[in-house]
Amino acid sequence: MRTQVCIIGGGPSGLLLSQLLHLKGIDTVVLERKSRDYVLGRIRAGVLEFGMIELLREAGVGARMDRQGLIHDGAFIALQNRGFRIDFKKLTDKQVMVYGQTEVTRDLYEARDEWDAPTVFDVRAVNPQGIDTDAPFVTYLQGGKVHRIDCDFVAGCDGFHGVSRAAIPADVRREYERVYPFGWLGVLSATPPVSHEIIYANHPRGFALCSMRNLNLSRYYIQTPVDDPLEGWSDAAFWDELKRRIPESAADKIVTGPSIEKSIAPLRSFVSEPMRWGRLFLVGDAAHIVPPTGAKGLNLAASDVRYLYHGLTRHYLDHDDHELEQYSEKALARVWKATRFSWWFTNIMHRFPDQSEFDQRMQETELAFLETSRAAQTVLAENYVGLPY
Ligand code: APR
Ligand code: PHB
Prior knowledge:
The chain contains 13 helices and 20 strands. The chain is of the alpha+beta class. It has a domain at about 5-70 and about 100-175 and about 270-345: FAD/NAD(P)-binding domain (3-Layer(bba) Sandwich). The protein has an 8-stranded mixed sheet with strand order 6-5-14-15-16-13-17-20. The protein has a 6-stranded mixed sheet with strand order 8-2-1-12-19-18, covered by helices on one side. It starts with a strand and ends with a helix. Adenosine-5-diphosphoribose (APR) binds next to helix 1 and helix 9.
């Protein structure tokens, strides 16, 4: 088989890139290791920057998002029994939208159905080859047979555990990593959200987050030791702990219910450079991971997609490789800024096991400054709604 861009990974990065290129008449094939149902069963974050909202509309998949997504003008920072609000709209004239990654992915798969897009599921042993030549190809196993796709470019959209990153020679690749000494225990429940805006709570017992997917579906998280056994967390224990970490006014009115999904996610910052090697481009989680504080992961994937989509469009339609040449540099500049923001927001909101009294005072002072300085709030808001592309 032959295609123009072979896309490894059918998560949001791979699907969005394929959809945008299709609208420009550029051929792609998407290779996905799992099944469609498996991909659509994953629960991930759900806050879209305004730039990502526009990109989804441009890709022709914005209709349901525009009907069902919830526009948020701000968010709350809670400090034990009090707190303050950051007004994104007032400070930046921009907003964000709460619309789950699962829904974005569903819309992208449904859009693919309409043009019979080539997606190969349940592939094994995917192997990008010849990426430093003019004739790259990807081999994979399916149904006990080896298949080969010849292409012009390979897009590695296969997430943190994919194979694409390792196709860049080890002596070329540089990896930067910070692993945080805690995780997030998340619960999804079919209950109305406690607040119409997201609450980020700093508490001596640990961080907590009140979020939502829609008006009848809530998403809550609490900081836990990363090796805490999930079995130890009954629904009742989770609600109990969450209520202790959020202001009483919220704890008193929270509607609890059985968890639909419950999992513990580790927190990590990770960046791999460069994001291009020969004819291979890394996109999204394949090249970088941020801790979920600030919900930047999906939005960073979207900005990578945007840069690559523009570069490939210029290549095919205008025979101009300038943007493609700049992909890695441009994408990484934005990645590092979001990495910094997510790292900072994580640092000021969590209890670290080895936090000294000095560290504790610094954290309190960061929050006090944030509460009282319009400039500091603007910095947070600017990052939260999404830095320019
Ligand atoms: N071959 C084919 N597909 C693969 C392979 C492989 N070797 N390895 C992984 N995949 C698939 C995964 O099954 C998954 O569906 O690649 C997809 C990668 O999807 P994500 O992990 O969701 O990554 P990405 O598409 O970059 O999405 C952006 O940002 O912070 C996050 O939560 C956010 O998951 C979101 C991500
Ligand atoms: C979520 O709704 O899952 C969510 C919201 C905000 C975050 C992280 C996750 O910072």
